[in-house]
Write a structure and sequence with these properties.
Elements (H helix, E strand, L loop, with lengths): L14 E3 L3 E5 L7 H8 L1 H4 L11 H9 L6 E8 L4 E11 L4 E8 L3 H22 L4 E7 L3 H9 L3 E11 L5 E9 L9
Parallel strand pairs: 5-6
Antiparallel strand pairs: 1-2, 2-3, 3-4, 4-5, 6-8, 7-8
Length: 191
């Protein structure tokens, strides 16, 4: 009988710097009650198809430590003007298919989080294609999130489907999503 395989070591951390924003791998030290409260807010986690949940700071530390930067990563979007996390960028890789599913979680200052995503989004996409050998990236976005839908259109994502009543909103109603797909040849822009 073979001994169990040892887990692979984590991949290298993500780090992308711009004059205003930084994208870096989330780490246990980032855990705070403020960020834990984001996960309890139905308006923030509902679009991610996640139920709101009460997380303690130790729970959040364990959650952050669960990302290996090999098969999935969670990147903190940091506003360098005050060194605060303004949101998160999440990617799950499907190795056999060389695909990635991405999602975003904005903190309480949505305008700053959107600016950070506009600046860091393309470099994070390029990183997935180059470092991880990803051949297609997909995202599911609420149809009501017109700002993000326009941004994804602008940088080259293709609208590949319309998912009727895909997610349940905090008020119990069903919401539609757009399925976006991006191949390396589709990517446009540098910001």
């Amino acid at each position: 009988m073979k001994p169990p395989a040892k887990p692979l070591p984590p991949g290298p951390p993500v780090l992308i710097d711009t004059p205003r924003f930084r994208a870096r791998s989330a780490r246990a030290a980032d855990a705070s009650q403020d960020i834990a409260d984001w996960f309890a807010d139905p308006a923030r986690v509902g679009p991610l198809n996640l139920p709101p949940r009460q997380l303690s700071v130790p729970d959040l530390r364990r959650f952050f430590d669960g990302f290996d930067n090999r098969s999935r990563f969670l990147v903190a979007l940091v506003d360098k003007s005050d060194d605060r996390i303004t949101g998160f960028y999440h990617a799950e890789f499907h190795g056999a298919h060389r695909t990635s599913r991405i999602s975003f979680l904005n903190g309480p200052n949505d305008a700053t989080a959107r600016r950070a995503m506009a600046v860091l989004g393309v470099p994070l996409l390029k990183l997935q294609f180059a470092r991880y050998g990803i051949e297609k990236i997909v995202a599911q976005v609420l149809t009501s999130n017109e700002v993000l839908c326009r941004h994804l259109d602008r940088i080259g994502f293709q609208r590949e489907g319309y998912l009727r009543a895909q997610v349940r909103a905090p008020d119990g109603t069903r919401r539609d999503q757009v399925l976006f797909g991006l191949l390396p040849s589709d990517l446009r822009g540098s910001t």
